[in-house]
Amino acid sequence: MRIAAIADLHCRVNSANTIRPLLEGVEREADLLILAGDLTDTGLQDEINVLEGELAGLDLPIVAVLGNHDHESDQADALTNMLCSVGVTVLDGSVAEFDEVGFVGTKGFCGGFDDLFIHPFGERALKTFIQASLDEAVRLENALVKLNCPHKVAVLHYAPVKETLAGEPLELYPFLGSSRLANALDRHKVDVIVHGHAHHGALLGQTPGGIPVHNVSRFVRVRHGERPFCLLEV
Ligand SMILES: [Fe+2]
Ligand SMILES: [Fe+2]
């Protein structure tokens, strides 16, 4: 399967005719399109309406996860329903299968990496914050258990490894992802992982278990001289 992946569209109410050109050629070159979060800029239904217009007529399956920006207006459920109603498969701690390729996805969350992962210790506020990250990893793992496909693709918004954050300020790393996500994906031998969110990061990394990790933020790709979407084969 040829898979196109892009993140951080950040569609606004005035983005008509600016998103579709980013996907030029995608139908010819890919069998499926992944949107890895931050589909909208502030999570408004009007923004999703504009995005739907930009995606209209694209004749290939679309798999998406929401990003933090899609949660900004506390309308994530409504946005998900709107996307589902136009045929987009929105993964939220869930799985989908297309032609023997299994897709697992969730937004992910903050938390940090490896030995510097923030521990749920001390104030209640900090425990609540980091529990949200632990919960995302558990949801991802619970979803992975349900996948019984020869090939598996993971779709996240937050980064599962720090390698694809290279270029971001070090102080931001704990807010850009969590290695707990990578641990879950390594245990289930996923073929490839895509994420966005780190607009100033690097294109490619890998998990400790050797799974390739692609930062498909369109801003990162264009900055590195690539076209806005990434093409993968599984
Ligand atoms: Fe973003
Ligand atoms: Fe983001």
Largest sheet, described in full? 6 strands, mixed
Mean pLDDT: 97
Taken in chain order, the helices and strands follow as: EHEHEHEEEHEHEEEHE
Measured distance between first and last alpha carbons: 5 Å
Q: How many beta-strand elements?
A: 11
SS field, number of helical segments: 6
Rg measurement, Å: 16 Å
The distinct ligands, each listed once, are: fe (ii) ion
Instruction: Name the shape in a single word.
Output: globular
Strand content: 15-25%
Strand order of the largest sheet: 5-6-7-8-10-9
Unreliable spans are none
What does this structure look like?
The chain is of the alpha/beta class and 234 residues long. Helices cover 27% and strands 21% of the residues. Helix 2 (45-55) runs parallel beside helix 3. The longest helix is centred in the middle third of the chain and has 23 residues, at 124-146. It binds fe (ii) ion (2 copies). The site of one fe (ii) ion (FE2) has 6 residues, from loops.
Write the layout of secondary structure elements.
Layout: E1 2-6, H1 26-29, E2 32-36, H2 45-55, E3 62-65, H3 76-85, E4 89-90, E5 94-98, E6 101-106, H4 124-146, E7 151-156, H5 179-187, E8 192-195, E9 204-206, E10 212-215, H6 218-223, E11 230-233
Parallel strand pairs: 1-2, 2-3, 3-4, 6-7, 7-8, 8-10
Antiparallel strand pairs: 1-11, 5-6, 9-10
The chain binds fe (ii) ion (2 copies).
Summed up, what is this model?
27% of the residues lie in helices and 21% in strands.
